[in-house]
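Progress note, sequence design subtask.
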């Protein structure tokens, strides 16, 4: 199996992403799309530490 993913369109704070899963013959087994919000890494790390107590 082969998994592929890419960003269709990216902005300053939002990215529109797509992906698919292919079998050995190249037949598409699954497709997905998502809208993701980009965040400052230091903010994400601080939230993770607060949530896990570390």
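Output:
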């Amino acid at each position: 199996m082969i998994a592929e993913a890419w960003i269709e369109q990216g902005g300053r704070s939002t990215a529109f992403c797509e992906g698919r899963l292919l079998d050995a013959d190249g037949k598409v087994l699954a497709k997905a799309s998502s809208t993701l919000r980009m965040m400052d890494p230091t903010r994400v790390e601080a939230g993770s530490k607060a949530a896990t107590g570390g």
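The first helix runs from residue 41 to 52. Work on this subtask will continue into the next period as scheduled.
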